Amino acid sequence: MRLLCAVFKTMMVVVVLVRFGQAAASAEPYKVINTAKVGGEGGFDYVVADSEGRRLYIPRSGGEKSRVMVFDLDSLKSVGEIANTNAVHGVAIDPESHHGFTSSKPVVMFDTKTLETIKTIDSQGNPDGILFDPFTEQVFVFSHRTPNATVIKAMDGSVVNSFDLGGAPEQAVSDGQGHIYVDLEDKDNVAVVDANTLKVTAHYDLGGKGGGPSGLALDKKNRVLFVCCQNPQTAVILNADDGKIISTLPIGNGVDGTEFNPNTMEAFSAVFR
Known about the structure:
By secondary structure, the chain is an all-beta fold. It contains no helices and 24 strands.
C-alpha cells in the first residue's frame, strides 16, 4: 500500500504496531513497539511484511536506483537489497518455495533467504500490483494497461498466461479457494477471477456507492469484501459470493490500500498524504 508516500519521498519511517487487549472498541488497542528511519532515493508503493519469513520488503522507485529494501521484521535492521528492479511497486512471497517476485519490468524472481536473483521474467503491460495465490501457487502481476494480469508459476518462474480484466486493476486478494478478487479503479467494480481457468466470472458493481476503488481486503471466514474508494471517500462492503452490497462506511481522504486482520476482525484503510 502507498502509505504516506507523498510525504516521505526520500525518507520513510517504519512503524511496527502491536494490538493489546481483546475488545476492538478499547480506547488504546495498539501501541508502537519499534520504529526505524529509512533513507535513500525513491518513493514507495506496496510495503510487504512476510510474517512467516520474518522479513519486511520496501520497494523504492524513482531516481537513479530502483530497488527493494529488505529488513528483519522483528528488529527492523537492514538485511540487504534486491537491486535492478526497474520501476518496482510491490513484492509477492511464496512461503513454500521461498521464492519472491517483484512487480517491476522485468519481474525479478529472487531467493527470499539469500535475496539473490534467480531469474528475470518478461511481463507485458506496466506492472503495478502483485499477489501470490496459495491455492494455485501462482503469482498474479497486475497492470493498468492490457493485458491487465500476467500469471507466473511460483515454483519455477514460468509464465502461465496473461489476460484482461476489463479495467485498470489496483489491489487484489485471494480467498485461498480458487477465487481472485481485483478492484478496477476506472470501472468502479470488483472483478472476480477463477484462479484455475484464469477467466473473469463476474463483475461486482459498487452501485454508485463508491468510486475509484483503490483498496481491497477480504474476510475469508465470513466471505466479506471491503472495497475502499477515493471518490466518494467510502468503504463499500460486499458479499464475496454474490457481490451484494452489505453496507457502506465513511473513510479518510486518499485511500490507497486496504488490509483485513482476522485475529482482531478489523479492516484497515491506509491513506497517503
